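Aim 2 progress update. The chain analyzed this quarter is reproduced below.
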Amino acid sequence: MSGTSYVIRGAQLLGGEAGDLYVNDGVFAEDAVRGAAVIDAAGLIALPGLVDLHTHLREPGREDAETVLTGTRAAAAGGFTAVHAMANTDPVADTAGVVEQVWRLGREAGYCDVRPVGAVTVGLKGERLAELGAMADSAARVRVFSDDGHCVSDAALMRRALEYVKAFGGVVAQHAQEPRLTEGAQMNEGELSGMLGLQGWPAVAEEAIIARDVLLAAHTGSRLHVCHLSTAGSVEIVRWAKSRGYPVTAEVTPHHLLLTEDLIQGYDPVYKVNPPLRSATDVEAVRAGLADGTIDAVATDHAPHPVEAKDCEWAVAAMGMLGLETAVSVVQRTMVETGLLDWAGVADRMSVRPARIGGLAEHGRSFEAGAPANVVLVDPAASRVVEPGALQSLSRNTPYAGMKLPGAVVATLLHGSATVLDGRVVER
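Predicted structure tokens:
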């Protein structure tokens, strides 16, 4: 998908010195090609195309909430050139056939590279391993496996999964939630949950699984990735594991970098999410963990839901929030404007490291000649009020509705082809 040739003029490369980028035949070039379209990037920051390790595209089975097409349009609008599509579809992505279907839908849509995540266990039931090898050998070349939405709580099964994926360089991405400690849980456990009369979700339910699994990763020598880490204790456990050289990586969501449990006082189900919004102390800790590299990546956990799944009472509402189209803005507010990360650090946490974890050789690359032209241009001086109706996603469950956020994605190029120009998704 080579598309038009471009000259990206005057962009601040990784937020540093201004320079020109030349794009031709899908890759970065040494010089401009005659007749190339010019993108005036003065004042814009050029980053390698963003990579999301944790996206729910819902197709097959829940096309009322999202499709691969609408989800990847949302991804492009957010500056992403690759997303990992989680396995909790219907049918579950636990066979080569289903992951290949999702992969092909992504190729047909053409808005970003879609890498399916394979289920660890059949039907996400936690009873027996899914067809890990067949999914790895399929056209989708699956390398990340997760039962996200469900924890692989059986230690022996988790060990076998880690041992199995090691053979082909895979990684198991764990949804860290001890099920017995979270039965009926509705929000973060603490003083506020008691005041609101909602069943508490203790931090230890996340931390106990992470502690167990980093030891299993060390024992097997296989790669563990911790999904949507959310507590101060979890950051400390991952920091300890990394200090010992264990093969462990971790991600944090934008909403856990910005939002706290205090928002739940109005019982608005838009703030109901798994893991739950935590305390201000936890938010401070995950920001620090992302800043010092303990947490490797920002991953959106983009979780679209139809209106009826959120427009209901808290207890029966679905868990999850939209995230793709607001991720870079939330990171700008929480990490850049606070001085915790510079834009080169944002590129590292939102592109370079996620691409490495997911095994995406064509993403998270530098702007050198010959490298795939996956790039996003961000206007850090812009701001916007989030309007759910203006989003590309098929769903509207954004927790940022009405909130003013900094920054805007002006252009996204996927393999040299524009998916977003002048802040608008390019129609195909």
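Residues 254 and 331 are 7 Å apart (CA to CA). The chain has twelve helices and 19 strands. These observations will guide the mutagenesis experiments scheduled for the next reporting period.
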